[in-house]
Amino acid sequence: MSTPVNTTAANVTGTASGTLNGKVAFIHGGSRGIGAATARRLAREGATVAVGYAASAIAAEALVEEIKATGGRAIAVKADATDADALTLAIDSVAEQFGRLDILVNSAGVLKVGPLESFTLADFDQTIAVNVRSVFVASQAAAKHMKDGGRIINIGSTNAQRMPFAGGATYAMSKSALIGLVKGLARDLGPRGITVNNVAPGPVDTDMNPEQSEFGAALHDLMALRRHGKADEIAAMVAYLAGPEAGFVTGGDLLIDGGFAA
Which residues are annotated as catalytic? Predict the structure, then answer.
């Protein structure tokens, strides 16, 4: 069973812009990369942020302390993407602790590539479990607690639109599945005033896909803007979707990929 590992949250101070004041956000897969950048950005906008992690407890706790040091509110919560009961319990515990849940960001993901003839069923199953099943589980759990104005935001991928190299079929399929899930959930939850969207990044400079690598440089040849994106740029799109100005945006798969799929 998973429980919050840090229940101390500092008061919001002048560092927050205020667009998300009073909101509570659960970042599933929030300890590293895009998830961590999103946690920082939503906290800066005034949200109380629960940083969900599976194995990176040290990174999650360090991020919480960083957010608190700049006047934000944050906790770290263990939430294994492959354990439906634990993930649901983690989300329920955050909603219970703070009395509400307004924003879910599904940022947990795995990237496994390889030729069809040697791609293992175990890797296939893990890809679906983390990239698709956990998004459904987290969305189902979070929606129970959301009121009018709730936001569910998934981190998808431009590879749902374009997979220009061999070996990425399973990853592309998993991210394509999120498009259908988002469109269906947008219909299911629209009558309750809850929006559901994908943010679909292209190559982003994280430990999963570093810009300074041979593979990273090759990706630039496929793009209109010949560079990796920054995690903060993706977080800015998430913050927009989480905020009041995006109240009429739902069922979308919003590319932020430097023209990778252009």
Answer: 171
